[in-house]
Specification:
3-stranded parallel β-sheet, elongated, 3 helices, about 50% helix, alpha/beta, Rossmann fold, about 70 residues
C-alpha cells in the first residue's frame, strides 16, 4: 500500500480519502506523510463522518487534511 501511495503522489496533486473515520489515525497520518515526501503540495480531501466538531478537528490536525467532505 505504501508504494501505491508514493506512486500516486507522483502523478496526482490531490487525494480523496474515503471512509477516513474508519481508518486508524496513525495509519492515515503515516500514509499522507509519505505521500507528501513525494509531493509536498499534495491536497488531501477526506470523507469524514464524526460525532463532533472536536473529533473532526483531531483528524484534520493529526493527518493534515486540507478539506473535509461530509
Amino acid at each position: 500500500m505504501l508504494e501505491y501511495v508514493r506512486i500516486m503522489a507522483q502523478y496526482f496533486d490531490g487525494f480523496r480519502m474515503d471512509n477516513l473515520h474508519g481508518t486508524q489515525i496513525s495509519v492515515a497520518r503515516y500514509m499522507i506523510k509519505e505521500a507528501r515526501r513525494v509531493n509536498p503540495n499534495l491536497i488531501v480531501f477526506a470523507e469524514l463522518f464524526t460525532s463532533s466538531d472536536e473529533e473532526t478537528a483531531i483528524f484534520v490536525k493529526e493527518i493534515g487534511i486540507n478539506s473535509v467532505l461530509k
